[in-house]
Specification:
By secondary structure, the protein is α+β, with helices and mostly antiparallel strands. 24% of the residues lie in helices and 35% in strands. GO terms for molecular function: acyltransferase activity, transferring groups other than amino-acyl groups.
Length: 122
């Protein structure tokens, strides 16, 4: 079965952001060496000294165990020389994300329909 490449989030876009946007993927593994959570970050397209968290996720079995918090804290440490970190979320699809971001001191910057942009000053 041939898989269609999603223009916004498919493999081609992942490769582009890794190569052209100074992208990096951080991940956490469990005791069995299986990836249970990750964040994909890259330079923000229009804001200088800004890192953008493009995609993040955890396995359902790893949720509420500090995996995402650990990943975000790692990003804050790695990119401490930047002015800010941004992340977009879609609260109707990911209803816990605004609460998580607030707990990590992210501020709501703007809303565009269902898409909400948050930032954290570093």
């Amino acid at each position: 079965m041939e898989q269609q490449d999603d223009d916004k989030h498919g493999l081609k876009e992942w490769k582009r952001r890794l190569n052209e946007c100074n992208g990096c993927i951080f991940y956490v593994v469990d005791a069995n060496d299986q990836i249970v959570g990750f964040v994909f970050v890259h330079d923000h397209a229009t804001m200088v000294k800004t890192t953008h968290i493009w995609i993040a996720g955890t396995l359902p079995s790893a949720r509420r165990k500090g995996v995402m918090k650990s990943l975000f804290e790692h990003c804050h440490s790695v990119y401490a020389n930047q002015d800010r970190i941004t992340v977009n979320t879609f609260p109707t699809r990911f209803p816990n994300m605004p609460f998580f971001l607030a707990s990590m001191n992210y501020k709501l910057t703007s809303m565009q329909a269902d898409k909400h942009l948050y930032h954290k000053q570093l």
